Amino acid sequence: MTLFLDTYEAKNKSKYLKITESRFDKNTKQSKRSSIFLFKEDLDKLKKTLEEIEL
Known about the structure:
Blueprint: E1 2-9, E2 15-25, E3 30-39, H1 40-52
Antiparallel strand pairs: 1-2, 2-3
């Protein structure tokens, strides 16, 4: 698995983070990608949630 973190700016000047996971499927020999988008105002919510996780 590989993760990519990219920052962008939307047309309305709002900044956001794109997190993309890339996985190689050994059966099909193809790469599969999934992405999520987080806007600046959502990053504090994500940070708070991550801090609550106990491993």
